[in-house]
């Protein structure tokens, strides 16, 4: 990273790289005090990382080198930090208590407040039955049609906060264009009680528009072509008023947001309307309040050694750019957070999966790792084998709640014991000698134990973070999501990346249009040999 002086860190890495986590614990007493932070109920234990005080000091020095404080202020104050698209980045304003944030001299807080009022009023009307279906029946089923940032955030939150749902309210999500998702859901719903929420920042996304058109067709076929009823049953969440009205959704049924809200940062905006309809507007506000609390912590904790998103980000930099660990696994232990890895996957990989810096220069260092994961407890019975004994080391973030008042203690105790034990196993491992002694104590012959013990060695020395929430409530979920947003931001600053465009998604979309034309006309145009062959394979099938 030529823009940084890494000499100190590089030398330090040479000294530290062969020390095991257990050696680091032996060298430093009270590591769990030294390497844990707490903020507003959230507990962050990062003691099981390959760091010591010197590492931390040197990593923190990077924040000075890149002038992180100035970047943070630039984002919060509405400067156009998305330089390739000349846009401000103000998802934080959506949950802010400030009364003024200016973009091009316009106070965007006024715009935000007015859409929030519209959302609140719509929620009240729908929940009270004032906004009913065309036949007068109450709307009880929300179908969110959207993809990427117009899907993953609402999916995560609605799944996580299901216990908070409005009485009798159901929600389903349609993202893929394969037709199965749409048809499966349409087969089970009642047009009289269903609201279709078309969620798309651009209102041009092929998958979403195709699904929306098909849903509209289905609706009309079920209502004797009652076009007037569309107004009660279709609403749009978008920045593109023109495309929304062209689609046939009236302006008053559109909930707006703005180009200073990135798709993957949009659940706090009108894109969150599906969430608010499902869990109620007050709970949606709690989600925003939690995120705002993390925003304040991030913005105001100028001693970065105490700043949780900053530390989380620096640990990631340490592993990616020094240890060459280019994969990060997220293991949420509460089933309610099962979609959290998918959400963070878009957040981090679409933001920081880049190899050109802000100034258009090719990057010669590693940037975003592969982010993946699923429910931690399920992972234990699937891919944790590789994490424990595989040939690569993959740092892990374990996310767990202290209490799940919608579960029960016996189950929660077991969940906790598993999460803690996994982190312990990753760090401590098991030696050949211990494995052999265990086998002998189980009655195995010495010759067999000699052999089998080789397969039961755990190298350990695998780092993990533990992020503990008091509970999975709207407030703490908001805090957790904002924590990862800010972590992503800090890493982008250190890698000198614009974390707020996503040009890497464009080529595939562009080529898909050309391939679709070939399929529709049955004339294969100019592609590479392999692509021609596979298009022809499909054409052969559909021409039968
Ligand atoms: O909300 P839209 O405009 O339909 O876009 C959906 C998603 O597609 C992307 O543009 C990627 O193709 C994401 O950035 C975005 O979240």
Q: Explain this structure to me?
A:
The chain is of the alpha/beta class and 544 residues long. The protein folds into 3 domains: 7-77 and 290-428 and 463-501, Glucose-6-phosphate isomerase like protein, domain 1 (Rossmann fold); 107-279, 3-Layer(aba) Sandwich (Rossmann fold); 506-543. It contains 23 helices and 13 strands. The protein has helices at residues 7-16, 21-27, 31-34, 53-65, 68-76, 108-128, 152-160, 180-186, 206-222, 230-233, 241-247, 273-279, 281-300, 308-323, 340-352, 376-380, 384-389, 409-428, 432-441, 446-455, 474-494, 506-521, 529-542, and strands at residues 36-39, 42-45, 102-103, 106-107, 141-145, 170-174, 194-199, 234-238, 254-256, 327-332, 370-373, 396-401, 464-469. The strands form 3 sheets. It has a 6-stranded mixed β-sheet, sandwiched between helices. It has a 5-stranded parallel β-sheet with strand order 6-5-7-8-9, sandwiched between helices. Helix 1 (7-16) packs antiparallel against helix 4 (53-65), helix 7 runs parallel beside helix 12 and helix 12 (273-279) packs across helix 13. It is globular and about 80 Å long. The model has no long low-confidence stretch (mean pLDDT 97). Bound molecules: 6-O-phosphono-beta-D-fructofuranose (F6P). 6-O-phosphono-beta-D-fructofuranose is lined by residues 147-150, 200-202, 205, 208, 263-264, 350, 502, 505. Keywords: Cytoplasm, Gluconeogenesis, Glycolysis, Isomerase. It comes from Aquella oligotrophica.
